[in-house]
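WARN retry 2 of 3 for item q-0093 after timeout on previous attempt; input resubmitted unchanged.
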Amino acid sequence: MGWNTTVIVLNDALGNIAEDPDFGKKLADAVQQAPMNRGKRIGVSAHSKRGGIHIDAASVIESHHADGTAVVAVGGNCATVLGEVYTRSHHKPEDKIELLRALAEREGYSLRKKPARGKRGVTNKGA
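OK item q-0093 returned
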């Protein structure tokens, strides 16, 4: 099936990315390094025509086989790989729950659904 790679692009660097004729090659090189880097972020710089540079215009976060699903938290211009799970799908609501359950179990936790609530927060035990 191939491989998938997670990349963060900093929107603030789009001007430099658009002007850097070598950005695509630098990104491709970083993506090719990702499987050997074992989850270590690889920064990709972008140069502007005016001589400026954005050191981490993009970052390659992880790369995984397309049979797996990587769960990645993104924020604050960085990302954390929460885990990789081999699932067939993650598009339907029930698939998402299975993915969360697998990640929780891997960390020693269990996932359970909250009990149904009736009016005024009373649990419907007999329903």
